[in-house]
Amino acid sequence: MDKITHILTSPLRRTLQTTLLAFEPAIKAGIKPVALDLLRETGKGRNSWGSDLPTLLKELGELGESVLTTEVEHNWEIPTRPIGVLVRAHSVRFKIKYLARVARMQEAERAQARSALGGSDWVQRSWCHANRWLMSYDVPHVEKDRDVHIAVVSHGSFLRKVIGEEKTVDELYNAEYKTFVFKEEECEGGVESYELVETEDSSNRSYTSTCEEAIAERMRAIEAADIDVSSGCLIEMAKQALVRVEEIEITDVYAMDVDVAQEEITLS
User: Fold this and answer.
1) How many independent structural domains does the chain possess?
2) Helices 85-104 & 156-163, crossing angle to 10 degrees?
3) Roughly how many angstroms between the first and final C-alpha of the chain, as a whole number?
4) Residue 228 within any structural domain of the chain
5) Among 10, 16, 27, 188, whose Cα sits 20 to 30 Å from the Cα of 47?
6) Is 139 in contact with 71 (CB distance < 8 Å)?
7) pLDDT at 249
């Protein structure tokens, strides 16, 4: 936890709740989570719909008020953006890598990058335009002798796209986290690589499915209810068990922590 330098999160309610719960020590130490609507759930179902952010963050209390929302687009709540999920996943990898780059910049370098937005060098200008979101908030500076660790909180179905589905044979469990670094080698033709490689420690980690635990909890609650089914009380008991489990279960939420000295990332 003390290694984390930046936090990015999906602006959906469940991911914001997870961010504030899981990274409370880091947030209280001064790291402000940045809500990024690119990290939202895939699909257009109701579980992909967002809430009014000012209202939601107020409900989440003091920690909720620390979340930066300048990178969440207007009318983001209903997922109607035409951008494809694979394009969105690539954009996230791109932004994570360049967040780390900007974090290492001294203030003079950042000022130079900002001025390039209106400059004549189209390569530099296009880079800065693509990353203007990094200029819109005070990116915490990381000294060059330290790694950059970026925690990314998102949704399992989307993170599979970010990681690369061919690398995620197993399902991502609720509240699981994985750590990745950016591949150091350049691609063919000298193009910079945005490929993620899981660290050895992360790949050796084992997890218990919280889905299986939730099912077992519900079954135990039903079996323990020595009540006449015809009375309807058993159904109520099952409902109570469902509510109790859902209160402790983090649903469909995963985090990705990116560490970039080697440019490393962790998903949970």
Assistant:
1) 2
2) 70
3) 13
4) yes
5) 27
6) no
7) 35
Residues 202, 178 contacting (CB under 8 angstroms): yes
d(C-alpha 213, C-alpha 173), whole Å: 11
Check whether 159 has a pLDDT greater than 80. Answer: yes
For the record, the structure tokens of 248 come out as: 């402790």
- C-alpha–C-alpha distance, residues 141 and 45, integer Å: 38
Longest Cα separation, the chain: 79
Please list, in sequence order, all residues whose beta carbon lies within 8 angstroms of the beta carbon of residue 102, skipping any fewer than 6 positions away. 110, 113, 131, 134, 135, 139
86-123 pLDDT, tens digit per residue, is: 888 888 888 888 888 878 777 777 676 666 555 555 44
- Looking at residue 125, its amino acid is R
pLDDT, tens digit, 9 for 90 and up, residues 201-238: 888 876 655 556 655 665 676 566 554 444 444 444 44
| Amino acid 181: pLDDT | 87
Question: Helix axis angle, 122-130 relative to 107-115, nearest 10°?
Answer: 110
The single-letter code of the amino acid at 211 is C
Q: Which two tokens stand for residue 86?
A: 């694979």
Domain boundaries, position 51 = 6-207+250-267
Q: What's this model's pTM, rounded to 2 decimal places?
A: 0.70
1 belongs to a structural domain:
no
Q: How far is CA 118 from CA 71, 127, 132, 137, 201, in A?
A: 21, 12, 12, 19, 44
With b meaning 16 or more CB within 10 Å and e meaning fewer, what string describes 49-66? ebeebeebbeebeebbeb
Same domain for 189 and 60: yes
190 and 212 in one domain? no
| Burial tier of 250 (Cβ tally within 10 Å: 0-12, 13-18, 19+) | buried
223 shares a domain with 105? no
Strand-pairing partners, residue 42, are none
Residues 234 and 121 in one domain: no
